[in-house]
Amino acid sequence: MTDYEWKTNVVEMIFSLSNRLQAIGDELDEKTTVKQRLFITGVSRFKEAPTLGELAKVLGCSRQNTKRMSVDLEKMGFVAISKDSNDARALRIGLTQKCAEHFEQLGDWASGSLDTIFTGFDDDLAHSVYKGLLRLAHNTDLLTKANGTAIPEAGS
Predict the structure, then answer these.
(1) Beta-strand relationship, 79-83 and 91-95
(2) What confidence score (pLDDT) does residue 28 get?
(3) Number of folded domains that form the chain
(4) What letter does residue 92 receive in the DSSP assignment?
């Protein structure tokens, strides 16, 4: 296999796995999608409720898409949107008790699914895959900057 072919195969596999994981994840919960759960996970990683901009940067999507997802999840009762106490223009996203209770119920099933996905992975392999994905994310950020596109950096 040539250098170009294996690189193409890796990118194709990432897209394929992404689609498959999304389909599996969407079946997990009839109330929320995988993207909504990733959004909620993103919010939960902050010590204090993040602003839309902070959250957009972590999620790697636009502020507009972050706001749209926030509004949808607020209607479902999973997040609360509030104005920042220091900057009335900034909106903060916090998780609700309803959200915590809902995701506590999903915990065991989600944990079991992750265990299945990572069957056969020892710590070294899992760490290597993670490091490789971090490098791909970093290089994608470099490409984004070089092309001048407006997609925020992942993992910043």
Answers:
(1) antiparallel
(2) 83
(3) 2
(4) E
C-beta of residue 106 within 8 angstroms of C-beta of residue 114? no
Q: Is residue 111 part of a domain?
A: no
Shared domain for 33 and 76, answered yes or no, is yes
Q: Which two tokens stand for residue 119?
A: 């069957």
Measured in whole angstroms, how far is the alpha carbon of residue 142 from the centre of its chain? 20
Residue 126, domain extent: 120-156
Phi-psi region of 155 (alpha: psi -120 to 50; beta: other; left: phi over 0): left
Are residues 81 and 92 in contact, defined by beta-carbon separation less than 8 angstroms? yes
Structure tokens, 150: 């407006």
Please list the rounded mean pLDDT of every run of 10 residues in the chain (156 residues): 95 96 88 93 95 93 94 98 91 96 81 88 97 94 76 46
Q: Is 79 in contact with 93 (CB distance < 8 Å)?
A: yes
138 and 90 share one domain? no
- What is the reported pLDDT for 97? 97
Task: Please classify residue 141 by burial: count the beta carbons closer than 10 Å to its beta carbon, then call 0-12 exposed, 13-18 middle and 19+ buried.
Answer: middle
Residue 96 lies inside a defined structural domain of this protein? yes
Q: Any idea what the Cα angle at residue 23 is, between residues 70 and 71, rounded to 5°?
A: 10
